[in-house]
Amino acid sequence: MSANKLKFLFVFFIVSAYLFSLVPAYAQTQQVGDDQAGSSGMGDTFDNDSNADDSEVASLPKHDSLSEEDMDTDTVNDEKKTGDEAEEDDNNADSMDVGSVVEEEPDYGQIDESRGRSDDSNGDNVDNIDYDSEVEGETDNRQADESNKLPHPSGSVGGGPALPESKPDLVLDDIYYDGTTYIKVKYCNVGDDSSDSDFLIKLRNEGTTDEFAGNPSYRFSVPAPGECDVTGGFTCALIGVDCGQRVTVSAVIDWEGRVEESDEDNNKLVKTIGAIDVGYEENCNGADCADNLNCKPDLWSAESICCKEDECAGDGKCFAEYACVSRPVKLCYNGGWIDVLDYEVNCVDGIDNDCDGVIDEQDTDCYNSYVCGNGICEESETVSACPRDCSKGKTIIIRNDDIGPWWSVDNAIYVTNFLRNKGIPQTLGIVPITAGGTIQLEQDPKLVSYLKSISTDAKIEIAIHGLNHDYNEFLGISQHAAEEKIRDAKEMIKKSLYVEPVTFIPPYYAYDESTLYAANSQGMNYFSAGWNAIDMGHGFREYPPGLWNIPATTDFYNWGTGSLYSAQEIESSCGNAMDAFETCVIVVHSHLFVDTENNIDPEKIALLAEVLDWVKSKEEQGVELKTIGKHKILPAPPPKKKYIVFRSDDLGPFWSDRSAINITETLRARNVPQVLSVVPANQYNDKLYDDPVISDYLKSIRSDKSIEFALHGYDHSMHEFRDISYAIAMTKVFGGRNILERAIGARPVTFVPPFHEYSDNTLMALSMQKINIISSGYDDFAGGRAFKKDKYGILHLPVTAEFYNWAENRANTAEDIENSCEYALGNYNICIIMLHHHLFKDASGNMDPAKVKVLTDVADWAKDKEAEGSAKIVLLKDIRIDD
Fold it and tell me: Is the overall model pTM greater than 0.85, yes or no?
């Protein structure tokens, strides 16, 4: 036998022996998998009932009227149940008798076990609820036994060798400047696996020890094995660096140790960054610029950097070029050249102003009659080239700040109108989100309607005043974070008011250079902070290019003493600002012109009037009154469809059947669609099908296309769905839905919570039972959920008008209801009118003709709206928010 054959047989023998040793482990693994599949109640989807928990409701009878296709779940298989488990189920059944409430097993899907226990931490014990007779108690034994867990892949299996464990390995590849503002870091995963963990990167200036540990709100993800990624920009100032400056920087990836790596010792990179081939000159006068036409005084140092032409080709070294001495000539911006000034601005100053190597009158670009600084705006001069000579004169601007949703809106409207009535232009600082980040602009229809009505006024500018007006909202954050906030604020204003702001006002005047660049990148043309802008060298100048800084110079309020200044103090401050800067910006806060009860204070308004009269007198003397900028008017979107809904509540077993039928028929006679909110049971354990009067009636109108049946709780008990566990919510929703199906053959898609109270567990249960609409009350407006889909995909359609005034314990008039409905149609495009049939009766229990006439009047009004094409009467299930 040849040597090769012997070698082959030897290898074959070794491999076969090894594989044979793995057979017991493989069998054990298969057994464990089978055990887990049999004991787990958590299927991959909530329709996978073959894995349902044996202790959940089992083998419930199916009603004859329901087909297999209608059933959400199959009958649970009981074959694997142990004696102990069966006994436990019997005990639970003895303590909880729900009768025919649940015709089939509620499907709990993939929900956290802690939310599905019958002994829920909220104290809602399913066993203590007696609905009637047929639901067995839920016991939470779905968790697989710990001993049956599959072994870790890296462990020893059946005597075989340990398998190598795959892990990611994060490394830093590069640190570099990116343009004029950022330092960026390239990082890679050189391991053989990824991870769901995230991490931060810490930057450190090795020269000054300044460091930035990263923003916990913007963590980085582990790349796929063998892949690399680049961070967003770290603002240079975060580690005390002037962008472009030559400096040694270190970076540490995952310094918190959140990612489990195969190698934890290669997470640091130290690198010296910054251009070394940029020439430095003490100044850029005359011939010094002949070969370096793009010299500029550096914005962050006393040195003047001359950047060669080819350094603007996107290499990140030459980050901004300014003209010699003080005026811009060319700007290297985003990898391209911008011509800012291409002629000699002064023919007698001995300086090569446009850096073309020729000085004063020797330069053919020099205009002999053009002398900047002589007080005369000559023919060749422009405002931007020589503002001292060509300024149009002095200017006063009124900046009206802190206008936001539900923020003293009546007072804001009063003060704004007070200025308008005086004929004074004003820039309105709009805060899109208030109340600690819970109320958005679109949720205040009164303010939105008012701002829309004045947005076309030439003397009104709508500006952005931060996103949510947090203290120091824009101070010390990255440019990227600031850009996101400004972008969000702009989009909210655009969406609600159909205007695009061009002016940004940082809250509390708190900002840094990242804020300036962020505002510039988001299309802002003007930036208005406070006196700090002047101290920082930004006041009344264009910086960065394209962004004019117009800071506030005068305030009505003395924030140090907590009181208003006198008229004389305000006028003096404004006059001094005009002398110094030719511009005075006066800040007004409407909520500071109120008394202790938040009502407009006549004395404070008298002070405002006195100052405004002085401002008008200055206008007569030639001072220009203007806004900071002017927002862009956007085309309004096509008008949305407007809907009216009649929601009739409290139809249930033995609950004023005659009035329920009477009111329903009153609307049907006028061909008015209506949503009937049906209560499946009552607190006496009566079910809907136990009351043949109401159940037969509802069954008789089931085919009427103008009728929608909604689920109105289970038994309409007080706080029924407010503080409730997921398990009980599921049982009630599932049981109530089944009763409606059995009694009238209708499966609801809309849920109306009793007393308009519900919880997150309620929403979760509705979602699992494919109920995708909830119609509650006014709390949905305060919570920001009105007319939106929530995280479970459920559309919230709250009531906007009612036939009964619960606060005053009286019936509303038809005019009251119609006015509320008009308001809702104007601001939300939807009016949902709630009525209760039992409130249309008189003291003797008979229908009250006067109350019924209010209903018919409102119904006729709605029909008229429909006839004229201004609204359509629909059912809740017909509403599409995007229409």
Answer: no
